[in-house]
Amino acid sequence: MQQWDVIVVGAGAAGLMCAIEAGNRGRKVLLLDNGKRPGRKILMSGGGRCNFTNIYSSPENFLSQNKHFCKSALSRYTQWDFIALVQKHAIPFHEKTLGQLFCGDSAKDIVEMLLTEAKAANVQIAMQQQITTVSFADGVYTVTTPELSRQCQSLVIASGGLSLPNLGATAFGFQLAEQFGLKVLPLRAALVPLTWQPSDKAVFEEISGVSLPVTAEANGTLFPEDMLFTHRGLSGPAILQISSYWQPGDNVIVNMSPDTNVAEFLASQQQAHPEQEVKTALAKLLPKRLVEKLLELKVFTNQPLKALNPKSIKQLADSLHGYIFKPNGTEGYRTAEVTIGGVDTDGLSSKTMEAKQQPGLYFIGEVVDVTGWLGGYNFQWAWASGWVAGQYC
Ligand SMILES: Cc1cc2nc3c(=O)[nH]c(=O)nc-3n(C[C@H](O)[C@H](O)[C@H](O)COP(=O)(O)OP(=O)(O)OC[C@H]3O[C@@H](n4cnc5c(N)ncnc54)[C@H](O)[C@@H]3O)c2cc1C
C-alpha cells in the first residue's frame, strides 16, 4: 500500500497546476492519469498552439448555475499570473484576436513548462492508470487500480469533461461525485458546431466553406464573430460561442450584416444605380454564393433596384438582420471543445474547491459546473481552480 499526502486524478491543465502548487507546499503528490501522456488536450488545443488564456478574462465569460462561484478562484489566480509563468519560461506568445493569447511556436511549450514545474515540485506522475475503486474510511482515501492500492489524505478530481472520448475522456469525475453524495448537473456538449435540419442541409451544404462576420443570438445572448457554413451545419466562432446558450428546439437568430444597415445601404444603392439588380447590390455586402442561396430561398426577388419600394426594402433588411436558423442538434462530444454542467458548485467551497460535506475531496477544472466562452477562458478556469485547490489540498 503506497501512502501519499495528495493524489490528483487527471494530468490535464487543472490537475497539473494543482499538483505543482501542492508539491511546492511540500506535500507528497501523485498525479494519476488514464492516458499515455500528460496534457493531451493542451497539446491539441488552439490548432496545436494552445490559446492558453485571455487578457480580458472575467467572471462574465463563464457559464454556471451559480454565476458567482468562479469569482474567488479567478480573482486569486488571474490571467496575469499565468502570463507571468509563461514569461518566466521564455515561451513566445502573441494575441491573436479579442484578447486570445496563443503560443508562438507550439502547445508543447505549455506542457513542457508544466512538467518542468511539476518535476521541481517533486510531483510523481503515473500514466496509464485505470482506477477501479475509490473508498474513504477514517479520513483516508484509498484509490485502487488493478496493480495496487494507494492511500492519501487529499483526493483531487481533475478528470475533465466528456468531450473527445477518443482522447481519454471518461465520466469518472461525475460518477465519483455521485458516489460521495455530490449533485451532478445535467451535461451537454458545448463550443460545438450546430447541425442542419434536412431541409436546410439540402440548400446550404452546397455553400460549405463560405464564411462571413455575423452576430449570432440564442436565448437573449449574442456573439459578434465569424460564422462558417459546413456540410453538416453551422460552425465558426460565433456559432461555437452561441452553442453554449442554445438548447434543442431553439432558434439561432443571425444578423448577416452586423456592421451595415441593409435598408440604408439598399436605398443609397437604389439612388446611385437604379438599374442594378438586387442580387448584385447584395453581393457587395454578403458572399456571392450566399446571396444566390438566399435568392433560391425566395428571401428576395431579383429585380432592378428601382422596383423596390420602402416596404420591400424594409422586409429584405429585416430578414438579413434577423435570419432564423433552426438547428437540428449539435455535433456532440465527438467535436465539442467542452462539457457544460457537471459537479454542482453548491456542494463545493469556492475558496478551496473542497467538497463541503466530504473533507479532503476536491473537484477542479472542467468536471465542475463552470464553463468558459471560446477564447482561452476554459484554460484560465483550469489554471485558477487548480491553483486554489493546490493551496489547500
Ligand atoms: C479540440 C479542443 C481544443 C481546445 N482548445 C482550447 C483552447 O485553445 N483554449 C481553451 O481555453 N480551452 C480549449 N479547450 C478546452 C480545454 O481543453 C479544457 O477546458 C481543459 O483542458 C479542461 O482542463 P481539465 O484539466 O479540467 O481537463 P482535461 O484537460 O480534459 O484533463 C483531464 C485528464 O483526466 C484524464 N482522465 C479522464 N478520466 C480519467 C480516469 N478515469 N482516470 C484517470 N484519468 C482520467 C484525461 O485523460 C485527461 O488527461 C479545447 C478543447 C478541445 C477538445
Description of the structure:
This is Aminoacetone oxidase family FAD-binding enzyme. Keywords: FAD, Flavoprotein. Residues 188-338 form the RsdA/BaiN/AoA(So)-like insert domain. InterPro entries: BaiN-like, BaiN-like_dom_sf, FAD/NAD-bd_sf, RsdA/BaiN/AoA(So)-like_dom, RsdA/BaiN/AoA(So)_Rossmann. Pfam families: HI0933_like, HI0933_like_1st. By secondary structure, this protein is of the alpha+beta class. It folds into 2 domains: 2-188 and 339-391, FAD/NAD(P)-binding domain, CATH 3.50.50; 194-330, Elongation Factor Tu (Ef-tu), domain 3 (Beta Barrel), CATH 2.40.30.10. Helices cover 31% and strands 24% of the residues. The protein contains 13 helices and 21 strands. It has helices at residues 13-24, 40-44, 69-76, 79-88, 108-120, 172-179, 198-204, 237-243, 262-272, 278-282, 288-296, 310-321, 377-392; strands at residues 2-9, 29-32, 51-54, 62-63, 93-95, 100-103, 124-126, 133-137, 140-144, 149-157, 184-190, 194-195, 211-218, 221-229, 233-235, 252-255, 323-325, 329-330, 338-343, 361-363, 371-372. The strands form 5 sheets. Strands 1, 2, 7, 8, 9, 10 and 20 form a 7-stranded mixed β-sheet that branches. A 7-stranded antiparallel β-sheet has the order 17-16-13-14-15-12-18. Strand 5 (93-95) and strand 6 form a beta hairpin. The protein is elongated, with a radius of gyration of 25 Å. The model has no long low-confidence stretch (mean pLDDT 97). The structure holds flavin-adenine dinucleotide. Flavin-adenine dinucleotide is lined by residues 9-15, 32-35, 40-41, 44-46, 50-51, 129, 131, 158-160, 163-164, 168-170, 172, 337-338, 365-366, 376-379, 382. Flavin-adenine dinucleotide (FAD) is lined by residues 9-15, 32-35, 40-41, 44-46, 50-51, 129, 131, 158-160, 163-164, 168-170, 172, 337-338, 365-366, 376-379, 382.
